[in-house]
Amino acid sequence: MAGEQDPAPRRRRVPAHEVRDRMLAAAHRSLTDAGLAVSADHLLFEDVIVAAGVSRSAAYRLWPSRELFYRDLVIRLAGPDWAGDGPFDQESIDLAERLVTERLGDLRTPNGRRRLLRDVVRTVVSHNFTAIRASRAWHNVMAIQATLVSMSSEERSDLLEALRTSDRQFTAPVVELFRDLALMLGLRLRPPYDDFGAVVVMGAAVLEGLTMRALVNAEVIDRTVRVLADDGTEEEWSIAALAYFAVIDAAVEPDPAYDFDGAVATYLGHVDAIRVAIADPHEIVRAGLADAIARHDDLRLAASVSTPEELLESYVEADAVLLDGPIEAIRPLAQRFGRVLYFTSESRPVPLRRAMAEGASGVVRKSDPGAAVVDALRSSGETWISASLAGAGLDGDPGLAELSPAQVAVLRALAEGLDRARTARLLGISEATVMTYLHRIRERFRSVGIEANNTMDLVRLAREQGDLD
Predict the structure, then answer these.
(1) For residue 321, how many C-alpha atoms fall within 13 Å in the half-sphere facing its CB?
(2) d(CA 139, CA 144)
(3) C or N: which end of the chain has fewer Cβ atoms within 10 Å?
(4) pLDDT tens by residue, 158-183
(5) 8 A C-beta contact, residue 277 and residue 321
(6) Does an H or E element contain 320, and which?
(7) What sign does the CA torsion over 437, 443, 449, 453 have?
(8) What pTM value is reported for the model?
(9) Residue pair 186/107 in contact by the 8 Å Cβ criterion
(10) How far apart, in Å, are the Cα atoms of 425 and each of 155, 325, 421, 431, 457?
(11) Cβ-count burial 431-468 (b if 16+ within 10 Å, e if not)
């Protein structure tokens, strides 16, 4: 009709999980500059809502009070994205590796290896100790830990788990560094130590304790001392480096089976190889994958476990994870390791899209040839989709009819044998609404070129997609 205007476009309703992510991310950005206090008094909930670009009603549905939001924020910030500089940061790890590779000639003699160990610890620990003392992020972590005192036991449990997850992620590369240094410097653990994880934790405790002590006793902690080296020369050490070296020296001893050429070749291969972790419940599959990885110089097996939980609780450091496990495990694995390839026999679009939505970097079918698995592991920075899944709608192809939770609920009830009237009563809606949902479902399938003749066709199509699992 003349004079009528098209209605304004309807604003998309933001899903609750997106509201949560946007709110917590906005608060995170604010605290990056302002620093974290032990209370929430300086953080204005309304300002966070504006910065996140979400509606007030959506935010208050998730968090009726600011205190509840702050609790979730602290738990979020306790995770690995917030921990900042710690013992050790990546710059310190890189410095240690550079010192060793620049002095390979020292590795030929026991005295040279001992001298290089002392120089690495003396230089790297002093560098790292200075970095964490200057790091606002590290002090924020201390503030987060201080909130444990005022939390209930239930809240404390959640925060402790987040802090432990963060600690495992930041400890893992240091454990790997220690293993590589032990390989290069001809060292092995003394009894009763059986893993470098305990050594790394003790060293971290030394640095963290000295950092806190430096707040009140800087004149002591900032001193340097002159120490006689094994060859009788004097060396200048920081208090932090000297204490850290004492931890290492008590835990390791020379390895009588040390082979210089073999150690260098192995170490240099480790530096360049893609580290792969496998999480698969089938031992025969893990063995086959390990064999395939061993046949390629640019790949290295970092871990082979049966469950994703074992990986998340380990000190393993990996560049890519091959996962056959719950889709829900993809997100925490991706946060910890970066690349997760969903390794599955699944071919239905809905579960596979769920895997991608959870953060999978790609999907590899178990029926794919070994060469395809290797290519997927090498495809860093790219989304990898198995060639056998072309047309599954994982690469933007509109081959999947996206159904809402309410539409799926209607189809599930009908699939269980309920008629439309009983479905309506079960779901608390009218029979007319059930008919409307079925019409919309049929249109969804039609929009991707699939015709359904009746309700049972719709049920079958939804089941084939994986909606009715």
Answers:
(1) 31
(2) 9
(3) N
(4) 788 878 877 777 787 888 889 889 99
(5) yes
(6) strand 320-323
(7) positive
(8) 0.60
(9) yes
(10) 39, 36, 6, 8, 23
(11) eebbeebbeebbebbeeeebebeebeebbebbbebbbb
